[in-house]
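Dear support,

Our group has been running a series of protein-ligand predictions, and this particular one with zinc ion is the one our PI (initials K.S.) wants archived with full inputs and outputs. We had some confusion internally about which version of the output was final, so please treat the block below as the authoritative record. The input we submitted was:
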Amino acid sequence: MEKLKLCPFCGGKAKKCRHRRSFSNDKEFYYNIECTNLKCGIIMPTYLNVHDAIKAWNRRIDNKKAAQDGNPETAV
Ligand SMILES: [Zn+2]
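Confirmed final output from the archive:
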């Protein structure tokens, strides 16, 4: 399974969370990633697939590409 990147806002550790989709069905779940730093409180939207949730969390803007595209605000 893919490793979670650190939180882009606070640098804290992220964790996978599994939520039951309904009270009547305990076999279906949805997943999201949350920052473990309670002062940060970042929570991602939920996904039906844990891999999609991880992919969404790990997605970062490509700084080099942003610089080439001429967007100085997103370039570092
Ligand atoms: Zn955080």
